[in-house]
Design goal:
Blueprint: H1 2-14, H2 25-33, E1 36-39, H3 46-76, H4 83-100, H5 103-109, E2 115-118, H6 119-152, H7 157-160, H8 163-189, E3 198-199, H9 206-210, H10 218-249, H11 255-283, H12 292-315, H13 317-327
Parallel strand pairs: 1-3
Antiparallel strand pairs: 1-2
Helix pairs in contact: 3-4, 3-5, 3-12, 3-13, 4-6, 4-12, 6-8, 6-10, 6-11, 10-11, 11-12, 12-13
């Protein structure tokens, strides 16, 4: 399979279109806007593509059903104003949209001989991916704060985490995600694309796009690492420390309260690890595009969004009971 992939890449890279290397960046970019970009995809092995199509289609369906079920459970819950339901519902909604921005095209392309995407669609995919990914980072921080207030200040929980505060935290998450995504988009859009039109990936991500530029992208690559990767690493470490402090504070709680808090914290920690570990792997490193990036990106955009609702429905006792009542398992 690896030899076929290399041969396929050499075929396309040997027949790529070149764009003018003179004029301003805007003039060069104008040339590539009119052309389709070629995606090499996950693999060029026909049998492998068919197998991956079936597997990823099933995973995508499970992911959508699971996340939409979480959203519906939060909507019809007897306590719709509960901060826990509020944040988990929006996390599921973000996961569903984030995965939908990438997964359907990746799945359909597995049945296509030639995988193409327009430059404008590529930029749109890149923007949406980082918008929802960035917003989810801030939302996970807000959920950690919610968990802290619930465990350390239970008597004042509903006062501190009132509806206005929850909405404010959500707005901050969206604004943070939007600003982060705009920075990423401006970095890419300002580059002069005059080289090949072949992307060695199944989606429009930052590092594969940098390889298409005909200028030195070292500075931009380092900026991306500092802007996305370093911040991601810092937030991940701070979240782990905060959850560690929370878990250590449970020693003073009753057995029942400790079990309930552990159930909530464990689900949060698991989701945080599943989200941040692939992100750190993809962006906290040397600016280069590695073959394993495709598999890790597939995990990040499809597997993790599928696992999140399973984690919250199975490990969070409050959400699990609400889903049981919704499905009629309990009276």
């Amino acid at each position: 399979m690896q030899d076929e992939d290399i041969g396929y890449q050499q075929h396309y890279k040997g027949n790529h279109r070149h764009y003018p290397t003179i004029g301003s960046n805007q003039e060069i970019n104008k040339e590539i806007v009119c052309a389709d970009l070629v995606l090499l995809g996950l693999t060029q092995d026909p049998e492998g593509q068919k197998a991956l199509f079936v597997v990823f289609l099933l995973i995508y369906i499970v992911m959508m059903v699971g996340n939409l079920l979480i959203v519906m459970t939060a909507i019809v819950s007897p306590s719709p104003d509960s901060p826990m339901y509020f944040f988990v519902a929006y996390l599921s909604l973000m996961d569903a949209v984030f995965s939908t921005a990438v997964s359907p095209k990746m799945i359909v392309d597995l049945l296509c001989d030639k995988k193409t995407i327009s430059f404008s669609a590529c930029m749109g995919q890149h923007f949406i991916e980082h918008l929802f990914g960035g917003a989810e980072v801030f939302l996970l921080v807000a959920m950690a704060y919610d968990c802290y207030v619930a465990i350390c200040k239970p008597l004042h929980y509903l006062i501190i985490m009132n509806q206005q505060v929850c909405i404010l935290l959500l707005v901050v998450a969206w604004v943070g995600g939007f600003l982060y995504s705009m920075v990423q988009l401006l970095f890419v859009y300002s580059l002069p694309f005059c080289g090949p039109n072949v992307i060695d990936h199944f989606m429009c991500d930052m590092y594969p796009l940098l390889e298409l530029a005909c200028s030195d992208t070292c500075f931009i690559g380092l900026t991306v690492v500092a802007n996305g990767g370093a911040m991601c690493m810092l937030i991940f470490i701070l979240l782990l420390i905060s959850y560690g402090v929370l878990l250590s504070s449970l020693k003073t709680h009753s057995q029942e309260g400790r079990c309930k808090a552990l159930s909530t914290c464990n689900s949060h920690i698991t989701v945080v690890v599943l989200f941040f570990v692939p992100s750190i792997f993809l962006y906290v490193r040397a600016v280069s595009n590695f073959p394993v990036d495709k598999s890790m990106t597939a995990v990040f955009t499809l597997i993790t969004p599928m696992l999140n609702p399973l984690i919250y429905s199975l490990r969070n006792s409050e959400m699990k009971n609400a889903m049981k009542k919704k499905s009629g398992i309990e009276n």
